[in-house]
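Practice problem: predict the structure.
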Amino acid sequence: MQESDLQAYRDKLKCSFPQIEECFEDYIQDSLRNLSNRGIDQYLSGASLICMIGRGWEPVSIYLEEMPEMANRLGEPILDIVSKAVWDMSRTPNGKAIPPFMQCLPEASRRLGTLEQMQHFLDILFEMMETTTTSVHGHHKTHSSQGFPELLKQIPYLLNQLSLEGLKNWIEYGTRNYLNHPERQKDYFCLQSADSKAMLQRERHGTLYMDNERKLDMYLRSMWQDESYFVPYSLGFDELRKPMPYYDHLGIRVPDVYDDFIAADGTVVAGIDRYRITIAHIAAHRKWTTAIIADNFSPFQRLAIEHLEDSRVEYLMLKEYPGLRKHLLALHPTPVEGDCDTEKESCIRHRLAMLSRAILDKNHGYKNKHILDFVAQFHAAVEKDGSSTKEMADIAILFTARTRLQSDQLPHIRFENTEVDYRDDNRHMWIFIEEGDEEEAFEDHRDAKPEELEIDGLPPRHYAEWDYNTATFKPDWVSLYESIHPSADARDIDAILDKHKALAKQLKAILDMLKPQQFVRVRYQEEGSELDLDVAIRSLIDYKCGAQPDPRINMSHKHDGRDIAVMLLLDLSASLNDVPEGSEQSILQLSQEAVSLLAWTIEQLGDKYAIAGFHSDTRHNVRYYHLKGYSEHFDDNVKARLAAMEAGFSTRMGGAIRHAAHYLETQKADKKLMLILTDGEPSDIDVDDEKYLINDTKKAVDEISSKGMYSYCISLDRKADDYIQDIFGAGGYTIIDNIEKLPEKLPLLFTALTS
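Answer:
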């Protein structure tokens, strides 16, 4: 990015915290990827507003870091909504809750998925905050809410357990029952009280859409070749008119939760299957339904057309996927013939539900002659060529004409056993001429893109971090920026290798013994270099006896060799600039020599390996530098990067280990080893609890171990005995007290670990 462009953006941000300056270019590059030009102005204006509240740099940093991705996911109006929400919160006694409020928003946006859902979520939070913020004399709010900060800390967990409606009910129970008991309110919202857990268990039900989003997306793409987006909605915020599934140009709208459905005969349809049926029904409409003009049809006629068109697309759907029939039969209501009293209530919906059921179920048992007649007409139409929406309209008009009763006009309409909840509202079927074309002009398809600029850096990778106090992960807590390390003069590394020629000669003798030396046979091959006589004779005997012979009668040879992939992860924190007592070189210089010799050693063996370094400056700015990739050799490019190694900032190790494991895991090798070279315990300037990052690093080590990778730490910290075994376990580390011996010991240690 041009310096002048960056400065133009910086001038729009009215905030002067030095921590913001360090990452500002990264923030702007991220916003250019995700926002329009108008959106960037809103983004910087919102950040300036948050800076004005006087709560330090962290809320501003979180806003700048997280909002571009949130705006890309939910729409740019969320930028102003969040900044104004923070401003409003700062005007109350709850200002201390702003950082946890900001921190919970990214996970909430991912779980909720739409701007409408997010607005409902914010309304729930602010209603709770307003209710539990108390006053002394009853006029002005003077005491902050005791439960609100605790609630915000639990939001990621709660949204993973509850639908938005369930969250609303859980919060309302806590505020209603513990409004005048601050301590008990605090226990409730931090999930410590038995009442809180019992209420959570009561509200936790059904299959959450967000837990199955990828699965449902793959279902739509693979089974229906449809690449539409899903837009979840909540059932808890429209009591008068329950929302229904539908689709428009923005995507397919589905509920945020489905409970298991138990039919009258005891058949259970799981929540995930209800999602599949709803999606299949909508996808069938998208594939086979053609919109028709609605103006010439009465409301009753439109209702009948929708029922028959629903039945038609389901008929075509079942021709392709007949296994869905059992779920449709269980979910479709079964109206009882004669249940609707034509003298007292309108029975049009009841008749149409009977017709729809009779079309779906051959064993419907209905005797009504009109129902039987139109079922036959329907099948005659669709069995030829699948029919069309227009033909269904003709049949539906005839059905309403023949079955019409005077009581159909009654205000009391029978809904019992008529609602098919997996069907959408069919808005896509109709074109209303009298509304004109004006509505289309207001639809925002947002083709406008931000100006294309050359962006060198990659967008940040977000990693969870383990909080041992709550025994839960903080989702997307760490922002890690990766880049290729700058280069210097490769001849500096050549000088180091020349300095240690004698050691290199000793290493070469050891390496010659570790290299693959002999061939071994690989038996039971269908294709190979020669015949495996024992297996061939056994197969011939099987053939003569009439049994199935084993076709793997060949064998081949391969080197009895090593199959190892190595990731060397270097701590590049500021403490590497220290010079150990009795030494003339800094720890960084000694590490540089040791890593150079180790790289030369691994190169001689032919193992796959990569080298990376990291340091951190709060959770918002973990830097990860690629020094050597798996596909590179130990050439001048790699040496130049090693020569430019510099130390700075802190040691937030957990996120770096998770990111390094991301690359190591993709390598094809029998053994995968991560070597971590560090000179101190995990720490960072935004963490006061010494055990916090130690426990997170231990969790990261456990994670890579569960994926079949091994970790081993080489520590240069003489006080490492206090914490290192807690992280890497017994036998998972070595402490080197005499740091000057590091260039000699590191290659020897590697050969011992991999021999």
